[in-house]
Amino acid sequence: MKSSVITFPGSNCDRDMDVALKKFGFKNKMIWHADAELPKSDLVVLPGGFSYGDYLRCGSMASKSKIMQSVINFANSGGMVMGICNGFQILVETGLVPGILLRNKYLEFICKNVFVKINDKKNKYFKNLNNKVLEFHIAHNEGNYFCTQDQLKEIEDNNQIAINYCDENGKIEDQFNPNGSIKNIAGIFNKEKNVLGMMPHPERMIDTSLSGEDGSLFFKNLINNLK
Amino acid sequence: MKISVIITLKKDVLDPQGKVIHQTLDGMGFDDVNEVRQGKYFEIDTKETDNDKAKAKVKEMCKKLLANLVIENYKIIDPK
Fold it and tell me: Between chains, do B68 and A99 touch, taking CB under 8 Å as contact?
């Protein structure tokens, strides 16, 4: 399985993602934002970080970079595209997934482990995962998912919510919402569910001695689903 | 020609920064403020000399980059 991680100026989770993808069997290539063409890939990842210093709106500049037109075409033809954290912010700015990520409700940068409940398993990202709840890491200032009422209705009608913030038992409540996101949304799909944007970092949970193993479960399952 | 654009958050979008500014103003004694909403202001100096054409281009810039229409409105100010 071939993957591509796009590096933007200011990306800082690109190499972590590279390590994670390779650990679980992907042949990964790092792709520079100014390149025009994507190499043949089974998965494209937009990594976390602070592309273009978060100028204007997080992800807005990166969403216009040269490589993004290829990424958009790839996604529109059914290719798997995953945006993590700043990558999620870039995805919403391209319009590949609906909504936007606002400043966290209480204005603080949040860096901690959270639990997320998988809302939908009829997709290649979470299909066949035994767990209902995963423990991932979040580190962001703008993770407060927002969309219009019309968009929310569409998202819910199409079952596009991927994961919600919850407690360790999967209870989705306000008190487990770290950033003020509508409906505790931590990640969403596009309609076809080949594009996934999420704030949590699975690539930070791939080593039991350093963090946890729920990221390992995610990546192992993902590569099996793509085979 | 210089064209100005003001970008504001839509009514139903939470503006925590505006809220904190409001609270601070309140604490400073400006206690008659109802609400504060924070926005963005741009000055775009363009080579275009035709007023209408320039405004049309800036409108396109707003839609494509300067504003995110999910949460923001934009207002183009007539050049003087």
Answer: no
Query: Which pLDDT tens digit goes with each residue over A18-51?
Result: 999 999 999 999 999 999 999 999 999 999 999 9
Distance CA A68, CA A87 (A): 11
Contacts for A9 with CB less than 8 Å, ≥ 6 apart: A33, A51, A52
Burial class (CB within 10 angstroms; exposed 0-12, middle 13-18, buried 19+) of B36: middle
pLDDT digits (tens, 9 = 90+) for B7-49: 999 998 989 889 999 999 999 999 999 999 999 999 999 999 9
- Which backbone phi and psi does A69 adopt, to 5 degrees? -65, -40
CATH number of A88's domain? 3.40.50.880
Kindly determine whether residue A64 and residue B66, on different chains, have CB atoms separated by under 8 Å. no
Least CB-CB distance to A102: which of B14, B65, B66?
B14
Which homologous superfamily is B2-77 in? Phosphoribosylformylglycinamidine synthase subunit PurS (3.30.1280.10)
Please, is A73 exposed, middle or buried when counting C-beta atoms within 10 Å of its C-beta (0-12, 13-18, 19+)?
exposed
Q: How many domains does chain A have?
A: 1
